[in-house]
Amino acid sequence: MGARGLEAAVELAPGEARESGAEREHADGQPVVILLGWAGCQDKYLAKYSAIYSQKGCTVIRYTAPWRMIFFSETFGIRSLQTPARQLLELLFDYRIENRPVLFHVFSNGGVMLYRYIIEALHTHKPFKNLRVAGTIFDSAPGRRNLRGGLRALATVLVSTNVLLKYFLLLAFATTAVVLRILLYPLTRFIHESHYDALLKAPSRWPELYLYSQADAIIRASEVKHMADARQQLSVPVKAVDFSDSAHVSHMRVYPTYYSNLCTTFLSDCVRGSPR
What we know:
Elements: E1 9-11, H1 22-28, E2 32-36, H2 43-54, E3 59-63, H3 67-73, H4 82-94, E4 101-107, H5 108-124, E5 132-139, H6 147-157, H7 163-183, H8 185-188, H9 195-200, E6 208-212, H10 221-233, E7 238-242, H11 251-254, H12 256-273
Parallel strand pairs: 2-3, 2-4, 4-5, 5-6, 6-7
Antiparallel strand pairs: 1-3
């Protein structure tokens, strides 16, 4: 934990720490999976997803951005997530795994907001332009200006917070979101475009897998489907799976085998199809 000052967890593949030998050579060919957690996600929950990939011999990096950045900095148009986005990519060089294929597994809008800056860094910062991204999995994301869903997500994060402080933060978030991200968005988007609109036209063209549900009370299924359709129109290879009855970021809990198989099959297909 705490790599590069981030509260990030890094699980190296078997043989990763060795300087030579057959195990090191095998590890060198394995993908790196970067998990971007939902707002308020504890690492112990993200680690359950990590196991899907570590069992396949992958190196896994887990990181969840602080909820204050997700709900307040981004809402106010402060690009505070740019720094952790770059630091996560720098970890690939720190661990000498920058030549491996990389898969992003992104959860909810909290993960998407960070992923948005990762894409920007991949296309604008010279050290990152040669990184080989194989694909991206979106779990319960992305969603656009859904104030009710955002309030539900923040309320979940603040569940153990003092009641007065909780309602003050909810009111502050709602007021700011309505003013800056809804009423004034036709103007503020020129200063700070929403993560959803940025992803609609993102320059990335690697495959994308969308895992969503009609029963999600935080991210509307129609918004995920709209994103998947829009990306497909840009010639991005897209697959979308509707779990129908599982709640927000609960698809693996309800359908563990199906979910794991979707992820590992997508990873294998992406790695086979990515340029060497």
